[in-house]
Amino acid sequence: MKKILLSLFLIASCTTMMFGQNIDSRTIITLDTTVCGSYKWMDSVTYTADAVETYLQGDTIYVLSLTVLDNIKDTIVPIVDSANCKLVINGKTYLTSGTYFDTISVAGACDTVRKLQLTLRGGADDTIVASACGYYLFEGDTLRQSRVFDTVLVESGCSENIHVDLTINPVYVDPLVHDTALCSYRWIDTTITDTNIYQRVLRTVSGCDSIVSLQITSFSMHQTDTLNALTRCLQYVWHRDTLSTSGEHTFDTVVDGCTRTYVLPLTIRTTTFDSIDTTACDIFYWSYNDTYYTNSIELKNLHFTGENGCDSAGYLHLTIIPSPTVHIDGQLNIQIGTSTTLTAVSDDSTLVYEWYVGNSTTPTTLDSVTLENVTSNTDVRLVSTATNGCSSTNWVVVTANNLGIDNTVATNVSIYPNPTSHVLNVRSASVISEITLYNAIGQKVMIQTNCGNNTSLNLDNMPNGNYIITTTTADGAQTSHKIIVNK
Q: Reduced to 3 states, what is the DSSP secondary structure of residue 179?
């Protein structure tokens, strides 16, 4: 607010007030003025300092005697009242925090301006981020779960928007553990020697306490522990004792007045001596040293690991009797609807022959067999048994076709033993250049070349089943036999 203090005086006299004077037909008007801050006169000039100015307008001369007073500006007045949401100053009501200017008017003087910095509670927003163990007290409520929420608090008529981000860390209370002990019990950082209930408060990684409890119900002055069972050969040294019998052996030890008995279940295995005097046809397998023998042999003072895992000794007197050597003579490749006769040929006249044609299970016990009106390929199996019980089996396939008869005849090849479990022997009057083995679905699974007159095939890696073995001699003659692997 601008205040102007105005007085009119006559320049040439001390008369209290005169509005004008005529000098040379001109009127002089004197204006004595006091203002606050600044003053704009009729000459359109704004004056901010004291001045004496004249201004001619027509026949009138105006004289200005100006006194300019300064407005009073007070310093910043910070006012903090966080308990209320409104504040009344000099008759004005303030409802929100902020910066305000307050003008104080004084009669007969210039205005005083104050700068107010108000901080009030009303209309404010606040955020509370808190973490607690187990629970958190908020405005009279007990909060036991982590949560994020917004709420409005009203106090003394003032409202405040509050955003709360609360994390509740669990406090663990483990159930009571019951246990018995031998003489003493080591628990956490304490050695317990009395029956009682014990508790410990532990601090978790979240900074909260956890309570664990233990109740020792009784102490025993004797405890028995059973060790893992052992198996040894001949003997076993345990705690300086040499044990040579199977059973449960015990050992006692005393520590701090407590007795502990250890029980050892022990099995003692003895060494074995195996003496065998036997006869076999073509091949013999001795399980004690996992070896196959195809020739007669006498072995003494053998040392090996027996089936029970202990060192063993053995004696073997073995006689290998070769299976009969038989071959089949006859035409194998014939026209459909014709006949062929197959004959067993051997140097041993005492052999008993059994012919099996096709799927027949009833043998023909003659030196020869005739296949009549053959319309399809036919398997023929010949089992030849000597008086010593050894036997050999020959397989051939009679092929029936419309291409006419060729000169293919059964070759002088014998294969034994058949069925076999591991080794198959092949003998021929002619030199064998190649042997090929096929499985039941026609896949080639083995080839052996440059076989001579006698050779053996190792069938350890062949699974049980039916196979076809094809032999080719140096002169080009070829024959096929069916064999059975049965382990």
A: strand
Q: Which of 365, 273, 357, 345 is nearest to 316 (CA)?
A: 273
- In whole angstroms, what is the distance from residue 88 CA to residue 301 CA? 123
Q: Do residues 225 and 255 lie in contact, with contact meaning Cβ atoms separated by under 8 Å?
A: no
Average pLDDT, stretch 49-55? 86
CA dihedral 10, 16, 18, 24 (to 10 degrees): -30
Q: Provide DSSP, 200-239.
A: EEEE-TTS-EEEEEEEEEEEESEEEEEPPPEEEES-EEET
The string of DSSP letters for 354-383 reads EEEETT--SPB-SSEEEEEEE-S-EEEEEE
Phi and psi at 276, nearest 5°, equal -125, 130
pTM greater than 0.70 (yes/no):
no
Mean pLDDT of the chain: 79
Q: Quickly count: other Cβ atoms within 10 Å of residue 308's Cβ.
A: 13
* Residue 407: per-residue pLDDT: 47
Residue with tokens 């009119």: 8
Integer Cα distance of 296 and 294 in angstroms = 7
Q: What is the DSSP string of 377-439?
A: -EEEEEEEE-TTS-EEEEEEEEEEESS---S-B--SEEEESSSBSSEEEEEEEEEEEEEEEE-
Radius of gyration of the chain measured on its C-alpha atoms: 64
pLDDT at 278: 92
pLDDT above 60: residue 474: yes
Residue 139 CA, chain-centre distance (Å), reads 46
Domain 327-485 CATH class label: mainly beta
Q: What's the rounded mean pLDDT across residues 464-469?
A: 88
Q: Are 297 and 258 in contact (CB under 8 A)?
A: no
Residue-range domain boundaries for the chain:
4-69, 72-120, 125-169, 177-220, 223-269, 273-321, 327-485
Q: What is the pLDDT of residue 14?
A: 24
What are the pLDDT digits (tens) for 76-107? Answer: 566 655 556 667 777 787 767 778 877 777 66
Percent of the chain exceeding pLDDT 90 equals 21
Say whether pLDDT at 123 is over 60: no
Tokens of 464: 């049980």
Q: How far apart are CA 181 and CA 175, in angstroms?
A: 19
Q: How far is residue 481's CA from residue 396's CA, in Å, rounded to a whole number?
A: 5
Confidence bin at 7 (pLDDT 50/70/90):
very low
The C-alpha angle with vertex 215 and arms to 209 and 221, in degrees rounded to 5, equals 140
Q: What span, in angstroms and rounded, lies between the C-alpha atoms of 69 and 49?
A: 8
- Token pair 């700068």 is at which residue? 115
Half-sphere exposure of 309 (CA within 13 A, CB side): 7
In this structure, what token pair is assigned to residue 27? 């009127």
